[in-house]
Structures are given as structure tokens and as C-alpha cells.
Amino acid sequence: MNRYLGNFDVVHIHALFSFSSWAAARAAGRQGVPYIIRPLGVLNRWGLENRRPLLKRLSLRLIELPILRRAAAIHFTSRSERCEAASISREIALLPSFIIPIPVEQENNEHAEFIKKFPSMAGKKLILFLSRIDQKKGIELLLEAFAVVKRNEPNSLLVIAGDGESKYIDSLRAQAAGLDISSDILWTGFLNPTDKSGAYAAASVFVLPSRSENFGIAAAEALAAGVPCVLSDQVAVSDYLKNNDSALIVPCDSSAIANALCELLSKPEMRARLSERGRQAAAERFSLQSVGESLVAEYNKILVRSRRNR
Question: With bands split at pLDDT 50, 70 and 90, how would you rate the model's confidence at 110?
Fold first, then answer.
């Protein structure tokens, strides 16, 4: 790394709480190359309080904060991510930063092969959850909500796509059994890119009820695929959608999630409107071209500042 790093104008480091990030920042500093840090959502209260909290707080003080202080800028992917990071440390709030979302590609999705692979979906109104299966994703709330939805929309099927710790998945299956909805849930496990594309194409509604989400890449992908979305207000991508009727944004509450899902499933005209507006929002905010142009602009600003300081 030290041998070639001096050939570059800017280094963009994607992670914190990682040895590779520390090593890259250290090497860039030694070579006098400005670097940017993208925290990948780890500077949030949920993660610091629920995932090895003592070790993370110690590391934040001794390792991560020095890396951030020496960075040319911090790259946040949403306003919510920046606000959460600022609430953790006043010092972080004062450091230079910018907000550029994660890009997603718009694809022509086909669902026929996906339905063949999971034939129980045929003819159903599909509610799609697609993400890592983790406690912060609010899946318990979704199961409670779906129990209500099923009574109102008997032809609905909840598709839970993704993988996680087996013990946690077992607890979710037990909850579903207790709610008497086990036979109305399809657990697909991890989906490869082709099947994931098919899942978006087949879905009537996409839902992500996370308790903490620094961006929400699956939600952005669903928008780009034209799937009407129900998102919790803790999914940071909702920052881009609140004011232009591109998705239904709800609190982390099972009743609110159920009401939004029932409304969408019962109103095809609303689904059509959200589908179109979601595609438009994704094209404007999350396209490769839009994000690429924004990144180039930020790199140029950093280079100008770096030359002034030499």
C-alpha cells in the first residue's frame, strides 16, 4: 500500500472499526494524500449500544476519532446518518463532511423464473422484506403487522428474503407460529442477484421496518425497481422521500406498519402512483451518474483545499 499510494490524488476509505481502515488512513497520512472516510453506518447509537458497546466506545476514543480528525472529509450517505454521528460526539459534528447517497442501478426485472422457483407465491399479493435478518431490522414488528394484514387481505403472502443467525431466525419462526401465520410466510433464505431481481419484480409491496438504518440499500433498490415501499422513519433513505410522495413512511410501530400495508394492498391506484414516483426518485437521487458526478465534485473540492494547504 505504501509503495503505490503516493500515485493517487485522493483515497476514499469505506469503513471504521476495521484494521484495514486504520492502515489505509495511516498510509495516506504518511504519503500526504488526503483521504475521505465513509463510516458505513457504524457511527449510530443503536450499533454502539447493542454491539460490543464497551469495546466500541474505547476504540472510538482511541482509534476512530483520530482517523476522523485527520480526514479531509467524512462521507455520510444521508442526513440522518450525519445527525446520528453528531449526537455521539460533538467533535464529529464539527468535522468537515458531505452527504452523497449510495448508487443503485435500475434494471428490467423479470419475475417468471422466480415464481417457478417458489411456486407458493403464484397468484398472491406479495409483501417483500429483503435484507439481512437481524434484530435491528424490526422483523418482530413486521410479523405482528402481517397478522393484522392477513385478516384483511387473505390472499397476501409475506416473503422474508435474507439470512442471519439461525437462533434468531428460529425465534422469529416461533413468533410466527404463535401468531398463527406460519403457513402464510415464505422464508427464501439468501437470494443471488438474479433471484433478488425476480423478487422485486414479483412483489406487490416492499417493506423495511428497521429500528436503525444508516441508508437502506434494499429500499433504494426496491424504489428503482418500481416496487411501492413502506419504510420506517428510522430508514435513512426516507429522508429523500418524505416530501415528494415516493413511499409511505411510518413509525416503528406494528399498527402503523399494518395500516400502511393494508392501504397499499387494497388500493392499486396508490401502488401505481408510488411505483412511478419511486422510480423517478431513484433515478434522480441514486443513479450511478448522479452519485458519480457528486463524488467527482467533492474530490475536486478536496484537491483544491489540499493544494492551498501545501
Answer: confident
Residue 25 has a pLDDT of 92
Summarised one tens digit per residue, pLDDT across range 115-130 is 999 999 999 999 999 9
Q: Which of 261, 256, 211, 253 is nearest to 236 (CA)?
A: 211
Residue with cell 489540499: 306
Looking up cell 413512511 gives 249
DSSP 255-280: HHHHHHHHHHHH-HHHHHHHHHHHHH
Contact indicator for 129, 168 with CB cutoff of 8 Å: no
Distance CA 55, CA 49 (A): 11
Half-sphere exposure of 245 (CA within 13 A, CB side): 7
pLDDT for 14 equals 94
Query: Which residue carries 399498527 as its cell?
Result: 255
Supply the pLDDT for residue 47: 67
Residues 156, 162: Cα–Cα separation, whole Å: 19
Question: What's the pLDDT score for residue 87?
Answer: 87
Confidence of residue 173 (pLDDT cuts 50, 70, 90): very high
Any bridge partners for residue 187, and if so which?
Answer: 160
Alpha carbons 247 and 269: distance in angstroms, whole number? 14
Q: Give alpha helix (H) positions in the chain.
A: 2-5, 19-31, 45-50, 53-59, 65-70, 79-88, 90-94, 112-117, 139-152, 166-178, 193-202, 217-224, 254-266, 268-285, 288-308
Average pLDDT (271-297) is 93
- Give me the percent of the chain exceeding a pLDDT of 70: 96
Q: What domains are defined for the chain?
A: 2-103+288-308 (3.40.50.2000), 112-285 (3.40.50.2000)
Contact by Cβ (8 Å): 186, 214:
no
